[in-house]
Design brief:
mainly beta, 14-stranded antiparallel sheet, five-stranded mixed sheet, Immunoglobulin-like
Length: about 700
Amino acid sequence: MRDFRLMKQSAVTLLAGALLLCGTTAYAQQSFGSISGVVQDGQGAVILNAKVELTNTAQGAVVRELMTSSEGTFVITPLPPAIYSLAVDAPGFKKYVKNEIKLFAQDRIGLPPIVLEIGSTGEAVTVEASVAQLQTISAERSGVLTGSQMVDLASNTRNFADLLKTVPGFNVDTNNANGLRTDQNAIAVDGTSVMDVGNNSAGGWRMNSDIIAEFKVLTNGQQAEFGRASGANITVVTKSGAKEFHGVGYEFYRNEWLNANTFTNNYTGLPRPRNRNSTFGFNVGGPVYIPGKFNSGKEKLFFFTNWEFQRPRLFDNLVRLTVPTLEERRGDFSKSASNGRPVTIRDPLTNAPFLGNRITQDRWNQYGLQLMNVFPAPNVLGVDPGYNYQYQFSGSDRRNDETVRIDYNISDRLKFFFRWLHNRRDVFQSGGLNTNNTVGIGAFHAAQGAISGAGNLTIIITPTLTNDFNYGNTRNWLPNEPDPKSGYLRANANVTLPLLFPNADKLANLIPNMSFGSEVPNAPTIFISGMPYDNENPTQNITDNIAKVFSSHTLKAGIFIETSTKRQTATIVNNGRLNFSTDSANPGDTGWDFSNMLLGNYQAFDQSNTYRKGLYAYQSYEWYVQDNWKVRPNLTLDYGIRFSLLKPWYEKQDQISSFAASGWPSIHLPARLPRQLSSAPSFRGPAISPMEWSLPQTAARLASRAV
C-alpha cells in the first residue's frame, strides 16, 4: 500500500512538472532504453547496497555507477543503444561480470536474477550473454534490425526504408503498418523527427545502411512516451565512434550487362532492361585524443563520419504517343486517322467538310501553329495506328550523403552527442514531379536536399534521477523547374501566345498546358503548372524527459514541442491550360483535335491570375507521464497518460480565401465566350484575344488564422 501511495504522489508531482514546462519543450520518440535487474545470494535473498557498474564496451567508458535498492533491485536509465558489460560487487561475494548485453533503441531489458557466489571480492565470475536479451518488462510489439543485418540483406537502393517490410505487421509493398495508411507512421533519427509535415512522409531523406547502427519499429503496445502518429514509430540510431579506429571504403556497381536476360524477354526478343548505378563511399570512426594531454584513455570523446555518393542513370519507360504529323502542320489532314479510322474535318464557318480534308494557309491560326510545333515530329510511321511517336528519356540522379556524429562523455554525470546529416540530390528527369506530363521535350531539374542537426544532453542528477534533453532542427527542400534549354520555355519553343494574366507566368515563361480528347489514341499531355516549383519544410523539435527510479517504480515524464513551417508553391495553372478536345456543343469544332489546334479553336481555357507561394505554419505540444511498476518478480504493470495539443495549420501571409458568389456584381457573372485564339477569323463575331477577356480578378476574403 505504501508503494502505491508513493507511486501516486510521484505521478502527480511529475505530471504537474510536465504541465509547468509545457511552454518550453517538444516532439517525441527518443532512442534511449534501460537495463534493470535484481541481485540475490545463493539462497534467493536480495542483496542491498551492492555496487553496480555499467560499461559501454565499444568506448571502454563507465557510463553509470549505482547501488542496489533496499529490495536488491537496480534500474539504469536512460541508456543509448550499445553493447554493455555489467559488473556487480558486494562485500563477502565474488565479483559478478556479465558481458555482451545488447541494448537496442527504446529497449527495456530486465535481466535474469543476478546470483552472487560467496567468496572474496578479488575473485570474479564472468558470464557471457550468448542469447538475445528478452524484454520482460514491456508489452510493446516491436522489431529491430541492426547495422550488420542491413549490410547482409540485399537492398537495391541501400535505403533502410526498403527493409521495413521485414518487420512483422508491415505491408511488403507499401510500408504501412497494421493496416493503417503509410502517412500515419513517424520516423525519427537519434530522437529528432525527419518527417515532412506537409504529407507526413520522410520527405527528401535517404539514409544509407552504412550510417545506421540499428533501427527499431514499434507497431503496438508502446508506452505513453511514444506519440504523434497512430501508425508505427520508427526510430533510427546512427553509428558512433569507438575506442579503436575503424574505417571502410566501398563501391557497389550495377549494369544490365552483368545480368542475364529474363526468359520472357528472350522469348519475345526484348533486350535486358537498363539498370545502371554506381554507389561508392567511406566511413571512419574512433577516439579524439591528444596523447598525454587530452583523452589519453580514449574513453571521453569519439567521432564517426560517413560520405556516400550515388550516380544512377534514370531510364524512363518507353512512351508512345500520337503527335501532329508534318502534313497536319501544313494543313493536310487527308491521312489523319483515329485508331486506324479516317477522320473528316468540318469547316466551322460553313458546317461542311473541308475540301480534301485540307485547311488552306489563310485559315491557319499563328498561335495554333506555334503550339503544334511544340510537339516533336513523328518518328514511328506505319507501325501501329495507335501511335506515331515514341521516346525513352535518359536522365541522371546525382546523390551525395554526408554524416558526422560526435559523442562526448563530459563527466560521470554529463553525456552529450551531436549528429549532422546532409543529403544532396541533383535530378534531371523528363516529366518533372507531375506524372500527367507525358511529352518529353526537355528535362526538368530538381536540386533537392535535406539537412538535419540533432543534439542531446543527458544529466545524471543522482544515480536514480536523470534528465535528457534533445534539440533537433531539420529542413528539406524539393524545388523543380524545367531546364533552361528545354522546349517547355516559351523562348525555346517560339511560342508568343498572349495570356489572360501575363504576370502570373513571368517567373517561368512557360508554354501553356495542353490536352486532347480520347479520339486521339495515346494523346499527348503537357502539364507544367506552378513553376518554378518550391517546397521547403524547416522543422524544430525540442524534447525533455525526466526519469526517477525508486523502490519498484520507474516513473517518467516528458514534454514535446514541434514547430514547423511549409513554404510551398501552389500547383495552380499560372501558365494557362488549353483543351483542344472535340465538342459537339462547340460551334468552332472541326471534329479532330489537331485541326482544332491549327484553327485556334479550343474546347476550354483556364488560367490562374497569379503565381502564389504559401507560407504555412504548424505547432504541436505534447506531454505525458508514465510508470513502470514491478509489482512482483513475475508481474510488471505499464501505465501512463499522454496529452496532445495539435494546432491547426494556418497561412501566415493570409493568402487563403474563398469566393462568395452572393456578393458579386451581376455584370461579372460567368458568361459564354468565343472559344478561339486571336488573329484568326472568328466563327462568331470578331477575333478575341485572351488578353482582352474581362474576368473577375478579386474575391471575398474568408481567411482564418489560428492564434
